[in-house]
Amino acid sequence: MNNQFCFEENTCGSGDKGWNFRQGSSPEVVFGGGGDYPSSPSSCAPSFLGFPSCFFYAALFSYTRLFPSPISLSLTVISVTTLCLHGRLGEGGGAEPGGKEEWGVAGGVDLAKEVIRLADEVDQPDLSDIQVRPEHRKFQGYYKISRHYRWALNQVFNTLSYSTVVIVEDDLEVAPDFFEYFRALYPILRADPTLWCVSAWNDNGREGLVDPGKADLLYRTDFFPGLGWMLLKELWTELEPKWPATFWDDWMRQPEQRRDRSCIRPEISRTLTFGRKGVSLGQFFDQYLRYIKLNTEFVPFTKRDMSHLVREKYDEMFEKEVYSAPSVTAEELKGGSLQGTGPFRVQYSSKDSFKVLARSLGVMDDLKSGVPRAGYRGVVSFMSRGRRIYLAPPSGWTHYDTSWS
């Protein structure tokens, strides 16, 4: 039986309700799956946990456990409780606003007990320390995380034979339209070979840097964001043989892995991290992550046309938008003398000028293999004083300089 993912109620037949769930061990990876396959696989598309149409299977991976179950499990108690409190659990599964089913917090508690029971069924087989160079002993946690990702992704793709995965770490809260977002973007990820992931995260998604009235605005980005992201089995087949021993996310950002492919990311993040303690010791959290704005508006993405995100259409529109914007200096922007609502373009010409301007304007200034966080074709889009700003290289940009790191 081919593991298709289905969300059409009239083709999948009856089944149990999907659930959103998370257990708070650290670090954790969460995977969505599908089940109850129809007679016509072509009528199905990937479905993620929380869709109340079919009988879904899922795999929840924590650092120490694998939880396979005929009950759909994803995310954790904290997420399901939040969604219940907002009356959004059914809506998060793709239901119509106003037509959602109220689940209640008690249901989340019952599911928490079920996950605890399931936790005893399958163990991650290797929790031992990893032999590393003496100077890398302080990075032992990063080595273990990379090992766990490899094991968990092999389990979900190769052992359980799922074709699509959404990964959510255990310290992430999710937006009401988290599942709707991924459900809508799957066809684009599948169809466009220049994409390799869909992420729920905007690295520059702080209050004041995003447009609160543009919850439906989506971008392509050359920077791998992580923090709630979707990948296909084909990508894992490509990456698994050379998966790194440590620092897997920075490894993903290297050109040898990225291969000129992009991700989709939102204007307003669909995840929010609350985990200050971890392998990074909280510094990054205190400086940036705690200020990220989580989307609170349900956007019916599955009813929108997403074809503008395919590269051929997107690049033409993006280039025109960026380079037709008036060029201004950071001083003019911050001085308040500019007339008009924007957008405006602030140009950088070197690694150093990018860093100076990024710091001045409040966006993240680090580069990975030359790629700025949230950047696309070298351009970083953000809001400043209520205006859209593009921090951009000169027109005619062709490639990233990997020495800019």
From TrEMBL:
Cross-referenced InterPro entries: Glyco_trans_13, Glycosyltransferase_13, Nucleotide-diphossugar_trans
Signal sequence annotation: none
GO molecular function: alpha-1,3-mannosylglycoprotein 2-beta-N-acetylglucosaminyltransferase activity; manganese ion binding
Gene3D superfamilies: N-Acetylglucosaminyltransferase I, Domain 2, Spore Coat Polysaccharide Biosynthesis Protein SpsA, Chain A
UniProt entry keywords in alphabetical sequence: Glycosyltransferase, Golgi apparatus, Manganese, Membrane, Metal-binding, Signal-anchor, Transferase, Transmembrane, Transmembrane helix
Membrane disposition: Single-pass type II membrane protein
Cofactor: Mn(2+)
Pathway linked to the protein: Protein modification; protein glycosylation
Transmembrane segments: none
EC number(s) per entry: 2.4.1.101
Keyword Glycosyltransferase: yes
Catalysed reactions, semicolon-separated: N(4)-(alpha-D-Man-(1->3)-[alpha-D-Man-(1->3)-[alpha-D-Man-(1->6)]-alpha-D-Man-(1->6)]-beta-D-Man-(1->4)-beta-D-GlcNAc-(1->4)-beta-D-GlcNAc)-L-asparaginyl-[protein] (N-glucan mannose isomer 5A1,2) + UDP-N-acetyl-alpha-D-glucosamine = N(4)-{beta-D-GlcNAc-(1->2)-alpha-D-Man-(1->3)-[alpha-D-Man-(1->3)-[alpha-D-Man-(1->6)]-alpha-D-Man-(1->6)]-beta-D-Man-(1->4)-beta-D-GlcNAc-(1->4)-beta-D-GlcNAc}-L-asparaginyl-[protein] + UDP + H(+)
Protein name: Alpha-1,3-mannosyl-glycoprotein 2-beta-N-acetylglucosaminyltransferase
